[in-house]
Write a structure and sequence with these properties.
Helix content: 25-40%
Oligomer: single chain
Bound molecules: magnesium ion
CATH superfamily: 2-C-methyl-D-erythritol 2,4-cyclodiphosphate synthase
Number of domains: 1
Distance between the termini: 5 Å
Strand content: 25-35%
Amino acid sequence: MHRIGFGYDIHRLEAGRPLILGGTEIPHGAGLRGHSDGDALIHAVMDALLGALGESDIGAHFPDTDPRYEGARSTGLLATVVGLVRRRGGEIVNVDAVVVAEEPKIGPYAAAMKAALAPVLGLPEGALGIKAKTNEGLGPVGEKRAIACYAVALLKLPD
Ligand code: MG
């Protein structure tokens, strides 16, 4: 059977932090605040995968009160969730994501993000979509105070 999952995340931008998105460091004057490395794109993808499994969200799996996840690289957390999919006998069919950021321009980094994430997901790059949008200047994302990400994932699971 097939199951679809959906994930969303938003993190505040904070001056002086490295900006890590999609497992890729992007040169910018501000980065995403978070207990881990703040990689909102990976967090949205993880929640999409967990949702397709009928699992609770990443906050339950990786509590931000747990010092083990302080400054954790989100690629490692993603690998743990992919391992959970495989233990259930599942296989990821494809993942599609949208990054909403006013600044910096994300489009030029989409290829690097795909190259970083596709191997962790065990997907060919053609089965991983990463698209970039601005928020047309509206709201906290449009005011460059945050970056938001959305993702869907399709899993093939045993009947
Ligand atoms: Mg997050």
